[in-house]
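To: structure desk
From: M.T.
Subject: fold request, one chain
Message: Could you run this one when you get a chance? Sequence is below, nothing fancy, just the single chain.
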Amino acid sequence: MDIHTRLMRRYKQAPEWWFACILVTNIALTIFGCEYYIDQLQLPWWGVLLACAIAFLFTLPIGIITATTNQTPGLNVITEYIIGYIYPGYPVANMCFKVYGYISTTQAITFLQDFKLGHYMKIPPRSMFMAQIVGTLIAGVVYLGTAWWLMETIPDICDSSSDTVWTCPADTVFYDASVIWGLIGPRRIFGSEGTYGAINWYFLGGAVSPLIVWLAHKAFPGQDWIKLINMPVLLSSTGLMPPATAVNYTTWIIVGFLSGFVAFRYRPDWWQRHNYVLSGGLDAGLAFMGVLLYLCLGLEDISIDWWGNDLDGCPLASCPTAKGVVVEGCPVL
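Reply: Done. Structure tokens follow.
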């Protein structure tokens, strides 16, 4: 038993039935909501149970990957794919299924991370439990109120064709995914009725790739660099694209290389002392500048035109690639 666990045993543990009660209550309320508003949400009760089963199944392996690599693979495509095949033609149901299957896993991992931090800081488990419950309730009210306020006060919000900077890239991707996977369905794109069926082989490639690295390490034990290859990190690194663009990834690669390779190898003392502070500073700086730019520029309808706002640097990046589709300003293939 490590020193942290031994010290934490002095506190009263949060009973397991507390968590079980919250789980059962939320599942019951979710099923009731989906059945009561079936015309709006489109997701039947069995869809909720299937989404919960996916979350239960994948939380442990994804938690292990997160603990060892600090990368959390998403189940968004898997959940959209499954419900898109089983229940095609219902985009809202596809979004709900993704939320209950994918977002539930993500929130569970975040919940465990918070408990791990509290474990190391020697915070009583029952206090952590209540902080999580109260924080969740407050966050839900604040998020809903903020979203409502933004939609009521900002004209043309989330309209990429207007001059507003509030283009909502993440929400646009969420909506586009509901159309692709829910309304159209994966069968018409990646299945027997589509033209991209070969992409399904990448699921097999992703499952086999860690085994290939393991076999290579066993075959060449003297090559130390092989064990540094982490396929979940490599394959999930582009999971945020879209909505992330080339500008986001180039800056991430540059800063990550300077910190994780140059500073780690040539200035290890500095890296040990300042690396996590640098990470927190970048996160806090991004959030602070987002608020500052909105208050100083967004409220005054002031926009800045510079190369950093040119996300892809390619005027044809949004043009269709299908043959015969005519869009103004785009070449016809």
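Reply (cont.): The two ends are 65 Å apart (CA to CA). Let me know if you need anything else for the meeting.
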